[in-house]
Amino acid sequence: MERGKGKGNFSCFCTESVGTYGINGFGRNSREAIEDLHVVVKECKEMAAEKGEEFPDVEFDVRFDVGSFFDYYPIDVTAFAKYIGMNASVLRQYVTGLREPRQEAINRIREGINKLSEDLGMNLMVERPPVSYV
């Protein structure tokens, strides 16, 4: 999944052809692009059936670039930048596609996502108020 420059320019694609078909989807946001990808798969199955061919069942392993990740998951970019110790303005430029992140920055963002995932998985939420108010 990739976010192109500007607004509403998302695309996702299979890195390998499925049979003789290239599969990709486009949309104004990452979710639309994924939905379009599923529509394309359905259309490819129909075209293959018309030709008497068999189209395999496919499953997708979606991998996001920085911009599409923050579009798909509604995480506050400024708060996340603070969480990982990155300049928020720079991260916003990566998210909007105005600036291409270097591998070092991608690794830092990926590590931050992994850390956030671990922190959320620690079940740190309070289940009930610690004090009863009368």
Task: Describe this protein's structure.
The mean pLDDT is 89. The protein has 134 residues and is mostly helical. It has a 3-stranded antiparallel beta sheet. It starts with a strand and ends in a 13-residue tail after the last helix. Strand 1 (2-3) and strand 2 form a beta hairpin. The chain has helices spanning 30-50, 66-72, 77-84, 88-96, 103-121; strands spanning 2-3, 10-13, 24-27. It contains 5 helices and 3 strands.
In total, how many beta strands?
Answer: 3
Class by helix and strand content?
mainly alpha
Largest sheet: 3 strands, antiparallel
**Assembly annotation:** single chain
Distance between the termini: 51 Å
Q: Radius of gyration in whole Å, from Cα?
A: 20 Å
Gross morphology = elongated
Q: Helix proportion of residues, in percent? A: 40-55%
Mean pLDDT figure: 89
TL;DR?
This protein has 134 residues and is mostly helical.
Strand and helix map with partners:
Elements: E1 2-3, E2 10-13, E3 24-27, H1 30-50, H2 66-72, H3 77-84, H4 88-96, H5 103-121
Antiparallel strand pairs: 1-2, 2-3
Helix pairs in contact: 3-4
Q: Features of this protein?
A:
mainly alpha; 134 residues; 3 strands; 48% helix
